[in-house]
Amino acid sequence: MTDPVFLITGASRGIGAATARLAAEAGYRLVLVARDQARLNALATRLGAPDRVWPVACDVTDWAPLSGLVTRVRDTWGRLDVVFANAGASVVTSFLGRHGAPPEEWRDMVLANVYGPALTARATLPALIDSGGHLVLTGSAAGRGVRPGNLYSATKWAVTGLAQNIRAECVGTGVRVTLVQPGLVDTGGIPAERAQDPKLDPADIARAVLYAVGQPATVDVNEILVRPAGQGPNR
Ligand SMILES: NC(=O)c1ccc[n+]([C@@H]2O[C@H](COP(=O)([O-])OP(=O)(O)OC[C@H]3O[C@@H](n4cnc5c(N)ncnc54)[C@H](OP(=O)(O)O)[C@@H]3O)[C@@H](O)[C@H]2O)c1
């Protein structure tokens, strides 16, 4: 089988799962990555035949299993064409300590949101160079503006920088790099103070991802900002 292979981190729910659905419909074979194997298995069962959907439990902040997974994908399926570095986490923070999670709980978010996509890029780019492939990273509208006390926003500024620095190193390799920056998406974890804000559906972001990867090899869609109609300027 020669169908192209699309690897998605954070695939078990939300934006990643919605992108998996559209990518399956577009004819890709899928590698679905998250930490919860049972949830990935359930999604894989809904998406298609076992020889086309491969659910793999892996923590994207853990280098050895992540790089080993990429080796197994190449050995088994022979190619890797699109990688969506999408896994991420969010906790509410305040540098003045006025609200939010205690600092001990900040570490996992920083690792998932910054170290995770950096390792995902490092693990997959050699395969993407071989295929003339495409790396897509999930940043955020929060990675463009100032949010008082918000460390999550700072991690997404880091993803903005990651995408630009990776793209700069990839010049001449044939690899394209797209940064997708969603506004508020209804994936179940919206804080109470934003409950009334306009929201996107995860499928709205999935369509943006498929748009970017569906362009001709000569077109590199660098950035896509998608916000719900009516979302305020600093959201
Ligand atoms: N929802 C929004 O409003 C919004 C807006 C802008 C940007 N984003 C970004 O979009 C991305 C997806 O968000 P979402 O709303 O779809 O989130 P979600 O529903 O909470 O899903 C997060 C996904 O990431 C996985 N994940 C988390 N940490 C991981 C780790 N260390 N290793 C492997 N997988 C991990 C989770 O699965 P396991 O727990 O099983 O590992 C899950 O599949 C994130 O990067 C998020 O920051 C979201």
- What's the CATH architecture name? 3-Layer(aba) Sandwich
Number of helices: 6
Structural class: alpha/beta
Mean pLDDT: 96
Shape: globular
The count of DSSP E runs of length 2 or more, i.e. the number of strands, is 7
Largest sheet, in brief, is: 7 strands, parallel
CATH C-level name: Alpha Beta
Order of helices and strands: EHEHEHEHEHEHE
How many domains in all? 1
Distance between the termini: 44 Å
Strand order of the largest sheet: 3-2-1-4-5-6-7
Low-confidence stretches: none
Helix content: 40-55%
Q: Provide the β-strand percentage band.
A: 15-25%
Description of the structure:
Strand 1 (5-9), helix 1 (14-25) and strand 2 (29-34) form a beta-alpha-beta unit. The mean pLDDT is 96. Helix 1 (14-25) crosses helix 6 (202-213), helix 3 runs parallel beside helix 4 (106-131) and helix 4 (106-131) runs parallel beside helix 5. The protein is built from 6 helices and 7 strands; from the N terminus they run βαβαβαβαβαβαβ. The chain is of the alpha/beta class. It is globular, with a radius of gyration of 17 Å. It binds NADP nicotinamide-adenine-dinucleotide phosphate (NAP). NADP nicotinamide-adenine-dinucleotide phosphate (NAP) binds next to helix 1 and helix 4.
